[in-house]
Inverse folding.
């Protein structure tokens, strides 16, 4: 849009590092290794020369059951990487080539079950 400020970053990645109490029925991304994956992603992005990409920690992204969870904007594409190889694939395929890593994508229907009434 006219008048919008220039973007600070071409891509902004939010990695959930939320922690829930041990044994919580929904689990949490932190206990599934999200902090280590975020740290690795930040280091690899720098190594790959992606200065227009910002990788940040995020609070709960409400995809606890499917985590670790991350979302990339401006596209709004959600992923659930489990390994460093998954992170490499997201960096190289999505952030460097503009394609999607279908096998790691979270879909709209990958949501928390509805809360019971009462």
């Amino acid at each position: 849009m006219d008048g919008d400020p220039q973007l600070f970053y071409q891509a902004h990645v939010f990695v959930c590092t939320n922690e829930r109490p041990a044994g919580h029925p929904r689990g949490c991304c932190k206990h599934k290794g999200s902090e280590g994956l975020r740290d690795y992603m930040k280091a690899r992005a720098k190594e790959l020369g992606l200065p227009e990409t910002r990788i940040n920690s995020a609070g709960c992204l409400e995809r606890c059951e499917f985590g670790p969870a991350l979302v990339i904007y401006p596209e709004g594409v959600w992923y659930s990487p489990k390994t460093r190889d998954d992170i490499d694939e997201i960096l190289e395929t999505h952030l460097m080539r503009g394609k999607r890593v279908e096998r790691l994508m979270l879909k709209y229907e990958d949501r928390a079950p509805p809360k019971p009434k009462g």
About this structure: The chain has one domain: 11-104. The two ends are 45 Å apart (CA to CA). Residues 11-104 form a domain with the Glutaredoxin fold (CATH 3.40.30.10).
